[in-house]
Amino acid sequence: MSYNQSNDNRYFNLHLEGFANLYDARMINPKQGQSFEPFLQVRATFLQGKADDAQPIFVDLKVTGKKAKKIIEKFQPQIANRDIKVNGVLKAGDLRFTIGNPKAPGQEHRVFTSARLLSVKYLKVDGQQIELSQFDDVDSNANSAYQPQQANPTTSAIVPDRVTLDPAATDFAQRKAELVAAGYTWNRDDSTWVAPQENKTLEAQASVNSQSRVVKLDKNQPDFDARKTELKSQGYKWDREQTAWVLPAA
Question: What is the CATH number of domain 5-160?
Fold first, then answer.
């Protein structure tokens, strides 16, 4: 088969697709002297690796897909609220990498990743799955050549609540700065970075556990083993009938 390069106007498209948390949805307006049209942007934290130790990849997404734009606009207040978890399966294209100048002598150069958000295949807002078919009438061509796959139900439960960084890694300073920008805080107890919502969850669980004699644990929680050990040390016993850890009466 021959390939006529001079008469071929096709493009090579590199796509990024995966599960991500969404943050900081906002309109980007041109400053004085800039000539671009205002556009909607959202920051996505894509996850890569094992579910119990997923590594975040931060990408700034310019929303270009028509259906994706309607979805992001609809849930922009929730995405902008750090106390609300918004995550889903996204498809992006036109990846670009920009090296930023260090703010002070001796600091490392930061690499910023950006792309265009083409489609949202699955979305969960504050624990509730969103029916995306309601936005189908506005999607003219963003996904016409792409057949969405069914999102894995178990994937929706994966949330980057805790992130472990290697201080010896060359991009340690950059990733630490990105986590801080996303609202993560350092937890000395288990040497991890904890998301804002997870901090509240842990505080609420600690309050409940301190008063309750019956505690149920989710095996999918990253800290399951640690909490199980802690309950045992406090005298809790496993009760098969209640499928929970029970503190015997004194």
Answer: 2.40.50.140
Domain boundaries, the chain: 5-160
Residue that has been written with the tokens 């390069």 in this structure: 5
Helix, strand, coil shares, percent, the chain, to 5: 25, 35, 40
Q: Which residue has the tokens 């919502």?
A: 197
pLDDT > 70? residue 37:
yes
pLDDT for 241 equals 82
Identity of the amino acid at 205 = Q
Widest CA span in the chain? 85
The arithmetic mean of pLDDT across residues 35-52, rounded, is 86
Residues 195-220: what's their mean pLDDT?
61
- For 164, residues 6+ apart whose C-beta sits below 8 A from its C-beta are 53, 191, 192, 193
Q: Tens digit of pLDDT for each residue in 73-93?
A: 999 999 988 888 999 999 999
- Nearest to residue 223, comparing CAs of 240, 199, 196, 244? 199
In whole angstroms, give the CA distance from residue 134 to residue 41: 22
In three-state secondary structure terms, 46 is: strand
The closest alpha carbon to 115, from 34, 58, 191, 161, belongs to 58
| Best CA proximity match to 61, nearest among 126, 118, 11 | 118
